[in-house]
Design goal:
alpha/beta; binds ligand C2E; binds calcium ion; Bifunctional diguanylate cyclase/phosphodiesterase
Length: 277
């Protein structure tokens, strides 16, 4: 089948209307993509709120389907979780991120990388051991890697993964709590996690300079997070107005299209060099 002119958006539409049969097709395509090494990581910079200095990147999965074009992770990650593919994909992401950090380091660039970790991945008994082994194989310090886990997944799993979470802390691997503000947790639960960082969800960032509730929420999260010794990242920053509001509210780090879209490993290095950091 030839692909029409609609590009990624058409694919998205197609899968949005996904019934059970489509999901099975997507699942088997994804299985093949993993076997054939067709997944890639792109990297989006995080910068210091006060002076725009480069801090590190978030690694984001990209799947270019040979016929259908780009398939968004919001679509294929849930399928990977449902069909038991997420552990393999998650292992690959950590391996690839470590390999890339080593390649950058050999090239004179020490880059801190945050990877997204699914709750199902964290629930694997050997998650910490596997991650530690990938770090060691590529001679990367645990402090150079951060695991992003969504607020809802972190909450749900505090009990189920207590031993994994304790192990993480012992190895010196830390968590970043993603999409913060969308769940229903009190910040108190954060004390149970080896968390270093909170990422304020894009839905609040979007309205931070136009809506008082969004602004108050960001303000409260920043104060409480700082009281607990956590660093606050705002994600999805698209405008200078949002940037200014977030700096005023005391966010530590910013990430979003305003600074850069996610990009390939090579382009990241040009991006860093061009800024003459
Ligand atoms: P996320 O972890 O919340 O990642 C942030 C998403 O927001 C990314 O979408 C990123 O490209 C996008 N983004 C960044 N800046 C902006 C902005 O200024 N405006 C807008 N509108 N969007 C922005 P992406 O790459 O499509 O990923 C979507 C989600 O898929 C991620 O959300 C994450 O939950 C999941 N995901 C991506 N890679 C992985 C992975 O390796 N493993 C797992 N388990 N999940 C992943
Ligand atoms: Ca994330
Ligand atoms: Ca997020
Ligand atoms: Ca998100």
């Amino acid at each position: 089948a030839k692909r029409g002119g609609g590009g990624a958006y058409a694919v998205f539409q197609q899968y949005m209307e996904c019934d059970a049969a489509d999901q099975v097709t997507l699942q088997s395509d994804l299985r093949l993509a993993v076997e054939r090494g067709q997944l890639r990581l792109h990297y989006q910079p995080k910068v210091e709120a006060r002076n725009g200095g480069f801090i590190g990147v978030e690694a984001l999965l990209r799947w270019e389907h040979p016929e259908r074009g780009m398939v968004p992770p919001n679509l294929f990650i849930p399928v990977a979780e449902r069909f038991g593919l997420i552990a393999g994909i998650g292992d690959w992401v950590i391996e690839e991120a470590c390999r890339q950090m080593r390649a950058w380091a050999d090239d004179g660039h020490v880059v801190h990388v945050a990877v997204n970790v699914s709750a199902l991945q964290l629930r694997q008994a050997n998650f910490v051991a596997k991650t530690k082994s990938a770090l060691q194989r590529h001679a990367i310090l645990p402090s150079q890697l951060l695991c992003e886990i969504t607020e809802s997944a972190a909450m749900e799993d505090v009990q189920a993964t207590q031993s994994t979470l304790e192990e993480l802390g012992k190895v010196g691997l830390f968590l970043s709590i993603d999409d913060f503000g969308t769940g229903y947790s009190s910040l108190g639960f954060l004390r149970q996690l080896p968390a270093r960082q909170l990422k304020i969800d894009r839905s609040f960032v979007q309205d931070v300079d136009s809506n008082n509730d969004a602004r108050s929420l960001v303000d409260a999260v920043v104060r409480l997070a700082h009281a607990l010794g956590l660093c606050v990242v705002a994600e999805g920053v698209e405008t200078v107005g949002q940037q200014r509001a977030l700096v005023d509210l005391g966010c530590d780090e910013l990430q979003g299209y305003f600074f850069s879209r996610p990009m390939s490993a090579d382009r990241l290095i040009s991006w860093i060099d061009d800024r003459g950091a």
